DNA sequence: CAGATAAATTCACATATATGTACATCTTCC
DNA sequence: GGAAGATGTACATATATGTGAATTTATCTG
């Protein structure tokens, strides 16, 4: 069950992150199609907790820097080592595609760092974006780091859906693809989850964290050169990863 | 009316900001005394939206960097000019007390930047902290920047409460104190709102934003030297504020 | 400076929602 | 290796909560 008002808080914050200017109660209510009275309650709650204020009289609400302060506290624990951002930054520059660092979240994989392609037609992904762990290159690069038992436990929770023609729709199909990936030396996906999207990924264990790097873009651009891209990812990791670490 | 689940989202985030490590459903439920099933729904919602993930198997949930990315977007609009942080940083260093930048939020004043005193006994305030606009030095330094009509409009919404012996409990009392502040050249408060707390503040208009700076600490330390402190604030503002700006 | 219009706020009630209970799954310790 | 305990998940139901309508407050317009 989705908790509506919890989701609404996130929606409001995303709204401000996009619009980047103060908004009045009426504007927010209209934007979301929420009743004014409900919007009033929500804004009052956020204000009362010190997360929203009125920068200038009658110009509406805007988030206080408290969000930033809180997010900093949270993220300064185990931040990703700086070379991982360099990694996806270099990969994106060299391939012209979107490159990301991905982490597990149950049956999903979450993007925890992203450098977007500059191309007009590109894979649009943001930090926090989630994809099924079994039906994506990045996700399978995570699964490769699991033990058989851990994978089985994940499989039991997966609802196998036919997202596209090549989506693996059984445990056996996923396991087979994993074996192929090992043989091949990297994970790949051609529209397994998102139409027209192709990607190459490899596991990226950091300390005891299981992450992966992925480069993804439109099938017609990536398709012919998945192998090259995968090799580039591997080389770039080799170059940037400090020799001491695992 | 307070929106419970909206507040809960904030509570969870604050919880993580404090504990700074992943937490399981059970831990979170126990910490807040929430039923497991409700906690489950909340965590599921936050996860689904890409704000929570499971860094490692069975080790529980932790916020994704999405919070940080969003907070950055939001806060990079009209950030406070760097000299304002320098300002409170210098003030805190020189006085040994807590110094803050404060903005209006209806009948309240919000702390939007804070440098805490290093002293063991100190004014403990964080970004996002809110205080009544009429019963604090910092708040009154904001009111001084309002027109008479704007002040009247604020007064109508204030619930006058006797927070301490010196709290102004009528419009007239507030207006008198404002007149005294003008004559004196700065705003002050001696336990008007928080027991044993004293502070000195002056208005700090930046562009069309109405802000104020305040230095606050225990009455016994600040009391004897409010004048000095206020003068120091004024001098420091003069020194740091770029000459061009208002 | 009215009178009109739009925005913000309040409140009582129907309903969407949080939770108690039951079940499944995983972990631990003997 | 197996049983007890802890943790995570599903669902029906009573109740806390969101909302439509009414009221108050602010803002525009001629």
UniProtKB/TrEMBL annotation, chains A, B:
<dbReference type="InterPro" id="IPR005471">
    <property type="entry name" value="Tscrpt_reg_IclR_N"/>
</dbReference>
<dbReference type="Pfam" id="PF09339">
    <property type="entry name" value="HTH_IclR"/>
</dbReference>
<feature type="domain" description="HTH iclR-type">
    <location>
        <begin position="3"/>
        <end position="65"/>
    </location>
</feature>
<keyword id="KW-0805">Transcription regulation</keyword>
<dbReference type="InterPro" id="IPR029016">
    <property type="entry name" value="GAF-like_dom_sf"/>
</dbReference>
<dbReference type="InterPro" id="IPR036388">
    <property type="entry name" value="WH-like_DNA-bd_sf"/>
</dbReference>
<dbReference type="InterPro" id="IPR050707">
    <property type="entry name" value="HTH_MetabolicPath_Reg"/>
</dbReference>
<dbReference type="GO" id="GO:0003677">
    <property type="term" value="F:DNA binding"/>
</dbReference>
<dbReference type="InterPro" id="IPR036390">
    <property type="entry name" value="WH_DNA-bd_sf"/>
</dbReference>
<dbReference type="GO" id="GO:0003700">
    <property type="term" value="F:DNA-binding transcription factor activity"/>
</dbReference>
<dbReference type="GO" id="GO:0045892">
    <property type="term" value="P:negative regulation of DNA-templated transcription"/>
</dbReference>
<dbReference type="Pfam" id="PF01614">
    <property type="entry name" value="IclR_C"/>
</dbReference>
<feature type="domain" description="IclR-ED">
    <location>
        <begin position="66"/>
        <end position="246"/>
    </location>
</feature>
<dbReference type="InterPro" id="IPR014757">
    <property type="entry name" value="Tscrpt_reg_IclR_C"/>
</dbReference>
<protein>
    <submittedName>
        <fullName>IclR family transcriptional regulator</fullName>
    </submittedName>
</protein>
<keyword id="KW-0238">DNA-binding</keyword>
<keyword id="KW-0804">Transcription</keyword>
């Amino acid at each position: 069950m989705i908790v509506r008002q919890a989701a609404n808080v996130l929606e409001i914050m995303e709204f401000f992150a996009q619009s980047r200017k103060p908004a009045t109660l009426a504007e927010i209510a209209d934007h979301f199609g929420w009743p004014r009275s409900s919007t009033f309650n929500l804004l009052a709650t956020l204000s009362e907790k010190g997360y929203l204020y009125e920068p200038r009289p009658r110009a509406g609400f805007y988030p206080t820097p408290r969000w930033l302060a809180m997010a900093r506290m949270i993220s300064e624990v185990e931040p990703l080592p700086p070379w991982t951002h360099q990694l996806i930054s270099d990969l994106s520059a060299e391939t012209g595609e979107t490159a990301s660092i991905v982490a597990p979240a149950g049956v999903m994989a979450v993007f925890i760092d992203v450098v977007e392609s500059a191309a007009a037609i590109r894979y649009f992904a943001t930090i926090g974006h989630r994809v099924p762990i079994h039906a994506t290159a990045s996700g399978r690069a995570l699964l490769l780091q699991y033990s058989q038992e851990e994978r089985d436990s994940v499989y039991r929770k997966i609802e196998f859906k036919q997202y596209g023609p090549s989506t693996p729709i059984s445990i056996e199909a996923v396991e087979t693809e994993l074996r192929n990936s090992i043989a091949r030396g990297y994970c790949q996906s051609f529209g397994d989850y998102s139409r027209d999207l192709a990607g190459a990924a490899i596991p990226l264990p950091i300390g005891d964290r299981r992450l992966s790097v992925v480069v993804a873009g439109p099938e017609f651009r990536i398709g012919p050169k998945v192998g090259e891209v995968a090799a580039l990812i591997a080389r770039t990791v080799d170059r940037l990863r400090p020799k001491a670490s695992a």
